[in-house]
């Protein structure tokens, strides 16, 4: 009798990505997701989508667990994280489209003529659902780039993307410099230095966690902004199809404002669909808030398990779950009136407190040991390393 992996032809070990393994592993779930996206735009296609989804999910699982995009280099393990998140999202989004009983409608289009193929592409790549009937309640940050012409918009976005590219690399190397032998390497380690007294230990870990938050912010901005440029210049998309993803999250004066307006909303729909909506049916609004954040924690655990399959789930689920708890506390104490400098202090303290736990989970997995944009730019690496080492020696003195 065949075992489960053998029956589904799932390899027990990751194999390197080649043209052949990419075609047989990655392309099938991608093609299935495009097919489902096209079908959900048409009436009376749900039976076909129901048949297609299990195939899509199995193919996505196979791709996520069997392919090695790192080319055997531990410092490129983060590429396996990207693959695993992508496949997770394919399975999640196609499931949501499968249970959809009515066709999805694109409400904002550049032409009055409907084009199902273009709508399919927009549905696939438009994670937030800007301009679709299913994104009601979505907050769109104000535009910060000039929109007088495509060239002006793309040029400004490119400059911003390059700025974030440098910033991400500099912060990433600064984090590595705190402990090159432990969490600054692919071997991993804790950000909590037991040789320091508690107040200095948590000051140091909080600085590391804050730097990581800005590094993640910059890294996500890079991917988004450098995608905007070819889409606007080559595909002739309009700038209003690419609204900003972030709205200065460091200015948040409440947890609600941070997570619902100022941080990116790319996975908002999936968190509500898989966590918020089911738990709200059982426990009301409190369940909805906690459920959405628990699914967010699960997604981040899936990303982490691509590097260390044995990583502990609680290291992601707990801190994200506590973000939901914080929002409930916030509403119970101040209602919707949280704001001002007191609200800013509350928000940043809660974020840093549980951010320590979250970042420590990433550090133990060796996520910060990956390659950096500054690896080949020694003149810029050296002053960053000297600055961090000097500060770290001061703390230990």
Q: Using DSSP, what is the number of strands?
A: 2
Termini, distance in Å? 64 Å
Rg calculated over all Cα atoms: 22 Å
Helix content: 55-70%
Q: Helical element count?
A: 12
* Alpha-beta content class: mainly alpha
How many strands, what sense, and barrel or not for the largest sheet?
A: 2 strands, parallel
Strand order of the largest sheet: 1-2
Flag low-confidence runs: 1-10
The succession of helices and strands, N to C, reads HEHHEHHHHHHHHH
Mean pLDDT: 91
Shape: globular
Tell me the fraction of residues in β-strands, as a range. under 5%
Structural account:
It is a single chain. With 397 residues, this protein is mainly α. Helix content is 64%, strand content 1%. The protein has 12 helices and 2 strands; from the N terminus they run H-E-H-H-E-H-H-H-H-H-H-H-H-H. The chain has helices at 4-7, 19-39, 46-66, 78-99, 116-125, 150-178, 198-233, 255-262, 268-305, 314-334, 340-364, 378-396; strands at residues 15-16, 67-68. It has a two-stranded parallel sheet with strand order 1-2. Helix 4 (78-99) runs antiparallel to helix 9 (268-305). The longest helix is centred in the C-terminal third of the chain and has 38 residues, at 268-305. It is globular. 35% of the residues are buried. Mean pLDDT is 91; it is low at 1-10.
């Amino acid at each position: 009798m065949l075992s489960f992996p053998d029956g589904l032809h799932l390899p027990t070990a990751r194999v390197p990505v080649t043209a052949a393994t990419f075609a047989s592993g990655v392309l099938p779930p991608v093609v299935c997701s495009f097919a489902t996206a096209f079908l959900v735009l048409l009436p009376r296609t749900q039976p076909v989508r129901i048949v297609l989804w299990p195939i899509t999910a199995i193919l996505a699982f196979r791709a996520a667990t069997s392919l090695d995009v790192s080319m055997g280099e531990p410092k490129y393990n983060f590429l396996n994280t990207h693959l695993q998140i992508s496949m997770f999202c394919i399975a999640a989004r196609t499931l949501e489209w499968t249970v959809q009983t009515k066709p999805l409608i694109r409400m904002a289009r550049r032409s009055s003529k409907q084009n199902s193929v273009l709508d399919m592409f927009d549905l696939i790549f438009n994670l937030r659902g800007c301009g679709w009937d299913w994104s009601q309640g979505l907050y769109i940050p104000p535009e910060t780039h000039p929109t007088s012409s495509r060239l002006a918009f793309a040029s400004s976005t490119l400059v911003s993307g390059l700025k974030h590219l440098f910033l991400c690399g500099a912060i990433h190397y600064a984090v590595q410099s705190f402990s090159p032998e432990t969490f600054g390497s692919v071997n991993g380690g804790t950000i909590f230095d037991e040789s320091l007294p508690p107040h200095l230990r948590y000051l140091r870990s909080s600085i590391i966690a804050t730097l990581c938050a800005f590094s993640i912010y910059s890294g996500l901005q890079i991917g988004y902004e450098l995608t905007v440029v070819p889409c606007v210049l080559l595909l002739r998309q309009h700038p209003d199809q690419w609204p900003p993803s972030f709205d200065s999250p460091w200015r948040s004066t409440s947890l609600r404002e941070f997570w619902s307006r100022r941080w990116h909303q790319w996975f908002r729909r999936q968190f509500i669909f898989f966590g918020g909506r089911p738990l709200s049916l059982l426990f009301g609004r409190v369940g909805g808030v906690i459920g959405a954040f628990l699914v967010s924690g699960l997604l981040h655990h899936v990303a982490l398990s691509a590097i260390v399959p044995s990583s502990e789930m609680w290291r992601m689920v707990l801190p994200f779950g506590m973000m939901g708890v914080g929002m409930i506390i916030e509403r119970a104490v101040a209602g919707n009136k949280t704001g001002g400098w007191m609200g800013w202090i509350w928000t940043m303290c809660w974020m840093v407190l549980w951010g320590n736990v979250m970042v420590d989970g990433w550090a133990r997995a060796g996520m910060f040991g990956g390659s950096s944009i500054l690896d080949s730019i020694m003149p810029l690496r050296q002053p960053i390393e000297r600055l961090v080492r000097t500060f770290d020696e001061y703390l230990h003195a």
